[in-house]
Amino acid sequence: MNSLLDARGIGKRFGGVQALKDVSLTIRAGEIYGLIGPNGAGKTTFFNVLTGLYAKDEGEVVFAGVPLKLGSPHEVARAGIARTFQNIRLFANMTALENVMVGRHLRTKVGVGGAVMRFSKAREEEAAIRRRAHELLRYVGVEHHAQKLAKNLAYGDQRRLEIARALATEPKLLALDEPAAGMNATETAELRTLIEGIRADGVTVLLIEHDVKLVMGLCDRVAVLDYGIKIAEDVPDVVKRDPQVVDAYLGAGHG
Amino acid sequence: MGDCQPIIPAVDIFLQQIFNGLTLGSIYALVALGYTMVYGIMGLINFAHGEVVMIGALTALATAKALLAAGVPPPLVLLLALLVATLVCMALGAAIERVAYRPLRNAPRLAPLITAIGVSIVLQQVAMLVWGRNYHSVPQLLPAGSYEILGAQITEVQLIIMAVAASTMLGLMQLVNRTRLGRAMRATSESPAIAALMGVDANRIIMLTFVIGSGLGALAGVMVSANYGIAHYHMGFLLGLKAFTAAVLGGIGNLAGAMVGGLLLGIIEALGAGYIGDLTGGVLGSNYQDVFAFFVLIVVLIFRPSGLMGEKVAERA
Asked: Within its chain, how far is the Cα of B41 from the centroid?
């Protein structure tokens, strides 16, 4: 398999704290790639650098063969990376449907001028956006909530809605930041099915997760961060037995 | 001494003040939208907005005079003057955003606020240099007729102002609630960072917000000068403050609030101006009209700082 994303020597400091140090990793097209590590290991920081929310201090990312313009979130989205958030970040006062429709913004183009000058074309496109948004809501299983405000959805449904919104941008890489956080066993199982389905549809998945069972069962390969340094990267079975990982992350008792 | 002031106001006078108030309120509402849109999307009170309205009025006036001198028929003059003023103000709005506010996007909140006041002063002075300190009389381009309803006069100018303002605001609501651009604007207003991560170019959306708000301001500027028949370099200041009051009254950041706040403020002012003489036994005259707007501002800030329809002020501030 060829690589979809190549992060090389990513470094990020906050004041005196080295949050990420020389992190390099390669995500292959079509895989589910797990990023794990203890709290504060730098997982979310890596996500934020990758998606352009934080400016990086060192390193570069090549995505789909092209250097990624880090530091410009909408360019990163345009390149084909979409994400969800550990603490859900929906547009709370917009409906579920509208949230997903915003995700379509990038892949549609009738602008102000177009909307005025070519009214019928704008209408057509708007209908297409709406149709696609409904499909995505159905895909993640929250279509019956389409007209509800996002803030009024149940927690698990909000997580699903975030995934639908991210998928609306037609990502090549979907980055999920702790999607199972706060979910019960049933919901987690459903989430797992959903993520596998997304991969089967050709989207590569990058997953940050605390739920070790979920990560080990779902991911093709796993990288482990500890204090901002990558200490392992391999298939789950190997990572699980890596003494450094056991030491840093799972704790002595899990050995 | 025996014949006292009428206790129950006459219907015709009351209705007259309502008509005047609605006209004034329509203009306030259009200007207030400019404040509230910018506030909603980036939490900035763009104090230069009143000056944009003034530039709109004076540009339209200059264009109209030139066209009339060239013998263009009046209805066409009006449309062309409005068009030129709108385009100039849109460009001005974009320029202000790019030059004055964008570099301060991540600065402490006080910095862009002070910059806004600076931009306001600069625009006023430039307008003074270009157009002078004089009051300019505005040529009558709209029909001058009027109708009588229950003893009150409503002019065609007033009717046109109300109709144009109402349809413009309806159009804006459609834009914001039903189009791709409007969705991107609402998303950016909730969170610029998240909207950007979903592929919305926040810089572009913020600039377009300024452009649209300034276009509405140009329209309001033309209306206000048509209504009063005069325009001058200083007209944006008080108008801007009152429209800002209207936006706060309705709940700043809330589009419907700006419209309601504008209309309400117009009516409060008109009624206040109409009855202040009676109420104070002739001590205060209608020249105290401006007091009402700021009285309203103070009352709203004390008792309902989030405005009639607002809810987002607290979390933004």
From this structure: 18
